[in-house]
Amino acid sequence: MSIWRLLADTAERCPEHRAVRDAGTNLSYLEFRQAAERMAGSILQRVEPGDRVAILARNCWEYACAYFAAARAGVVLVPWNTRLTEREHTAILDDSNAALLLHDDAFAEAATALDVPRCALTDALAGSAPRTEPPAVAPDDTAHLYYTSGTTGTPKGVRLTHRNVVAHAEMTRAELDLGEADVWGHIAPMFHLADAWATFAITLVAGTHAFVGEFTAASTFDAIERDAITMTNLVPTMLQRMIANDSTADCSSLRTILSGGAPIAPETVRAIVDRFGCEYVQTYGMTETSPFLTMSLLDAELRSLPLSDQLRYRSKTGRAVRGIELRVVGNDGRDVPRDETTVGEIRVRGATVTPGYWNKPDETAAVFEDGGWLRTGDLAVIDDRGFVTIVDRAKDVILTGGETVYSTEVENRLFEHPDVVEAAVIGIPDPDWGERVVAAVVLRSATPEAELLAFCREGLAGFKRPKQIRRFDELPKTGSGKLDKRALRRAW
User: Structural domain of residue 237, as residue ranges?
Assistant: First the structure.
């Protein structure tokens, strides 16, 4: 099945079901399909099937429409992180060779600064539906490119196919018992798979999409009450801010809150459950896996345990979702014991796993093993029930506020400063963000911290910039001369 059929079939089956609630815009599934067809027509007036089409916008119903319009037009959608700088967007533009940029009003100026044909989302909706049938799409054709900087600090486009996306939608329908009564709150950014997956899964079950353009605790509470949101995904930073907010909004419509992107403590899970009165599910995934690999869903036996034990399981990384084979493998290549003590690397395979990176065969080969197993680079333990808990990240990934920051990318920026001799970027615990990005440097001269911070602001998105830069005479090294980041974290 192609992504387009998710919407087309639902519109045929449930034409009058409400698809969209967004700032006064209410659309049935028939109207939503018609809007997507008009946008597809506008796209095909400007590009050819198979071309890459980028999108730069805040959360809105037009963004959800673009995901389906791209599939109807047979183009590859490239969602852009709105927090990136012009320099970072240019690098992604060059790598993907996008032929068109869709944007909303908020990013009209940013779009103008880039060397690519552009079209406002509102203008794209003014087009006419294509007169031809949808282009023939094979299940393994690329549908989306999600860019991640990777461990090298250079952009890598993760290819997700129609098969990947549809399989993930079907999996989440089953795991989360999604149905037409559900109202999904698009609150986390729609350019990020933490939220984007729900665009397809909720459409599959004829549920309703509601939108928050930009997160604040107040705006989110208002949306939950106004739109009777039943489910959403909120990164830990968002949840912390909402717990601290004194809103009196009625949240009784909520049945499930999902979260991931940073470790979470059982005490925080208890606070979430107490504040919202709904089920909490911890998730773990990757851009490369569409994204979810595990969920901390409890079976009947675990639900019968005392609350403290339930919270302990809910705060774990979780068990493998349906359709995903998951192993925790030691250095000897064998599965580690399920003793919740022995550490190994998580490796996975399944229908939701990417076929690889855009135009990067070497990087693709490096992460796959014989038999199609994807090496995640994440280190974890596993218990006798199959619940995994991540204990470290082999690739020095920093998870801050639900965003992924790769230390190498930030270090590369610091090395561009003429006074920086050595640089090491780490994440340290932060009660609000999960982790905070900080940097240690060895300098040629007494360059002030403020100057280095300003230098980072010029070349890095806000969530990637170090919040603190500390000068050292020498950075800790291992016996082989490699940088010892564990020692640096202890010294910090």
Answer: 3-314
